[in-house]
């Protein structure tokens, strides 16, 4: 009896054991779209490291159940602006402007262009007015009162800047004193020369040389030229100067500047030279420089009131 029960029990248990061994091990179901992937140990460590840098390692959140998987962010490059601080590509950002190319220096205001075909700027004075100014007309009245013999000349104007708008050609400083050769100058210089001859040269010739002055030799009046050793125009270029080279007396003597052979002649020359300083603003002569060794230079250069340059 017991033997029969044992045999029946073993017969039933054997199929059950085999059935249990044949049950397959459950496999993980395939991932469906929208399901979050399982975190790997490396990813978990990366999340912990990122949390520790921000100081929020206890607040690391999990993605929502319906959130799509996010790719692992690439590591930041040195000097790169973080994503949250980087401005959008179209947020008014402009490309750096290219640097302008260097251009060659151009002449300044004070530098005249040079090179082939570049002409020097003209200094030609403007035409004089059609009507003679009142002062010029009054000056001519005074010349006639002094006995000056003169003629009108056309305007003198040259490209270098030389100019005498209303020149006169003088042949005598009075009815008794000739001026030769003809001297072209402005009216003011003619008047001053006539007054100086009347007030100083004539009386000094009689007093020192013992004879009447009858003629003065002029060596230069209007000449368009610069000063000696300078680019600045001479007073001669404006008809504002007169050079005297010799004096002729009624007794026939001619006394040349710088060639006085007698004491009286030297005294006369010195007296004339000293007297000229005042009526004229510039007085030069023998001893001033080599250019004035043989004549007196008298001019009316504009200077401070009451001043003169006499040498």
TrEMBL record:
Residues 15-24 have a biased composition (Low complexity). Residues 40-50, 67-87, 98-112 have a biased composition (Basic and acidic residues). Residues 1-19 form the signal peptide. InterPro entries: Extensin-like_C. The keyword Signal applies. Keywords: Signal. Pfam families: Extensin-like_C (PF06904). Residues 25-39 have a biased composition (Pro residues). Residues 15-134 are annotated as: Disordered. Residues 138-311 form the Extensin-like C-terminal domain. This is Uncharacterized conserved protein. It comes from Mesorhizobium australicum. The lineage of its organism: Bacteria, Pseudomonadati, Pseudomonadota, Alphaproteobacteria, Hyphomicrobiales.
